[in-house]
Specification:
Blueprint lengths: L10 E8 L5 E13 L3 E9 L12 E10 L4 E4 L3 E4 L10 E4 L28 E6 L4 E6 L4 E6 L2 E3 L7 E4 L2 E3 L8 E3 L21 H36 L1
Antiparallel strand pairs: 1-2, 2-3, 3-4, 4-5, 6-7, 8-9, 9-10, 11-14, 12-13
Amino acid sequence: FTAQEAVGQSAATDVIVYDSLGMAVQVRIVAVLESCNNSASTYRWFADSADNQNGVNSSIGCGTGLISFDGEGHFIGATQDTVTIYRREVPSSSPLEFQLDFTQLSGLAEPTATLSVSRQDGSGPGTLTSFIIGEEGTIRGVFSNGVTRDLGQLRLARFANVNGLEQRGENLFSAGVNSGLAIEGNPGEQGIGSIIAGAVELSNTDIGTNLIDLILASTMYRGNTRVITTSQEMLDELLALYR
């Protein structure tokens, strides 16, 4: 936003804000030079919205205030920064109020004055598309409207004697008589441990050792089979001699 002569045109910009239901509301913000001296300049801003439904009259005005700059064009302050839009004909919360941040404005002399909104924290309706789990256990959801929001917090627990935990199947364990009480906390606190998002647990078996055990078991099985076969043959011969 740059300064302009008192006889020059006003600076204006349009911005879309959202009410409690995510409905878009069009707002037009205009700034005009109100006074100027050898040490400072003052601009008045106006906010208008055709969606303003105050229930009293048909006024579209929803906010006004003053913005002051020093002799070098630096922002000094603003007397008002709140825009109030009444929403009486829709089921959303009324009034819709939001604040304007003028701290990034400057009052420099330029042939053409400009006014723009760099960002806003409102958004339209969206659905959860994915989520991310951080190392600290925070579950952050990502929505289709570009908004990210914390959804929850994972908690971990440790036990004084992990060997005392009771197996419940499917890689699940529960507290046992000898495990002690659970010490709960957030990941990374009290020596509880941390979380690695997206990681897959590796196998806890040693393939080489298991293959050796399998070969030994197979060899022992074949040996036992031969002993049984030999014993059966000897028994058959004894029976034949007896006859």
